[in-house]
Amino acid sequence: MLLLALIGGAGLRTSEAVAVRVRDLHIDADTVTVTVTGGSRPRTLPLIHEWAALAAAAGHEARPDDQYLVLPQVNGPANRRDRAGFLCAGSGDNPNLAKLRDTWVITMLDRLPTSVLIHAAGYTSTSSLHTRYGQFAIHADDIDAAAFHHVMVEAQR
User: What pTM value is reported for the model?
Assistant: First the structure.
């Protein structure tokens, strides 16, 4: 379940989620954050509240700081990634990890500024984000501009 919390709650890629160690999960009174240290896009992200309790439960278990949180008994990040994919593969009720990440990104499209979402999702450019998810963004024609009149006025001051 922790794997699902990291992907669904913070939008990590499977390869990033299986590289998270105990020391990378930070729990305080009302927020759970995960630090992505591996790969080319390090970042620290809060987990969506609905997923945070799952991650917090795992974070309170007594384990060495350098132990992997997901599949710690499996050696090598590629092996953990492949095993995680295998556990969630198939049909029926098994979650699809890529679609779970997609759901997180799509949910955040209209909640975060683009520059913040690019960083949070681990992308390097607007075009890479737009190519994959642009079709899901709410476009200006789909919103009531009058509802944002005061925001537009303040932005021009």
Answer: 0.80
Can you tell me the distance from the alpha carbon of 65 to that of 87, in angstroms, rounded to the nearest whole number? 25
- What pLDDT shows up at residue 45? 95
Strand 25-27 vs strand 43-46: parallel, antiparallel, or unpaired?
unpaired
The terminus-to-terminus CA distance of the chain in angstroms comes to 48
Query: What are the residues facing 33 on neighbouring strands?
Result: 26, 46
Dist CA 119 CA 110 (whole Å): 15
DSSP letter assigned to residue 73: T
Helix (H) or strand (E) holding 33: strand 32-36
Label residue 142 by pLDDT band (50, 70, 90): low
- Closest of 35, 57, 56 to residue 44, by C-alpha: 35
DSSP track, 74-141: S-SHHHHHHHHHHHT-SSTT---HHHHHHHHHHHHHTTS-HHHHHHHHT-S-HHHHHHHHGGGSPPGG
Taken in order of first residue, the domains within the chain and their CATH numbers are: 2-155 (1.10.443.10)
- 138: Cα separation from own chain's centroid: 20
